[in-house]
From TrEMBL:
Name of the protein: 5,6-dimethylbenzimidazole synthase
Class of this enzyme: oxidoreductase
Native source species: Methylorubrum zatmanii
InterPro entries, sorted: BluB (IPR012825), Nitroreductase (IPR029479), Nitroreductase-like (IPR000415), Nitroreductase/BluB (IPR050627)
UniProt keyword terms in alphabetical order: Oxidoreductase
Alphabetical list of Pfam families matching this protein: Nitroreductase (PF00881)
EC number(s) recorded for this UniProt protein: 1.13.11.79
GO molecular function, one term: 5,6-dimethylbenzimidazole synthase activity
Lineage: Bacteria, Pseudomonadati, Pseudomonadota, Alphaproteobacteria, Hyphomicrobiales
Domain Nitroreductase: start-end pairs: 27-192
Amino acid sequence: MSEPVPPACGSPPAFDDAFRAQLATLLAWRRDVRRFRADPVDEATLRTCLDLAALAPSVGNSQPWRFVRVADVGRRAKVIESFERCNAAACESYSNERRNLYARLKLAGLREAPVHLAVFCDSGTQAGHGLGRATMPEMLRYSVAACIHAFWLAARAHGLGVGWVSILEPGIVARALDVPESWDLVAYLCVGLPVEEHADPELVRHGWQARRPDAAQLHER
């Protein structure tokens, strides 16, 4: 059973120090997972995470996200083929030690993850009546990204791992999944129980890119 959606009205909740500490822990432990167990994902838990993700903000309240569960073996195979083609090309774009390091990275859990979710932006939606996107139409995609992040955090809080695969050909994925032409791929997510848990990001742990010490710097103008 899905968790109840917060009421639209009533007294706002009071978030105490303990909650804020837990929230900080959740944000710190949100990881891009590439190594999954074969165990199936509990359907009620997945549904709860999707319901919570749908609480994300969206421009004009347009809610342009469209989740597609990819269960068909043939469709998954086409996605994997796209990844392998793009990944090989990306590897060749580097040289020397950086190429060798790239080749050793595990950049997707497409073969292991029990759940695949393709997340699209419906660029043709009439919901929201165009509010807030006449000057910045990309706000629709940003809204989908906010929804994805909310799903990521909800999944982590429920013990699930999520991996965002971006080394793909969006057009090929869209055709493989036979979605409407107005749907643009924003994310392809692998979801499942993680094999391992780490506080540090995978790319930090394997020497690709360290955390920027000034990532939270506030620029004044």
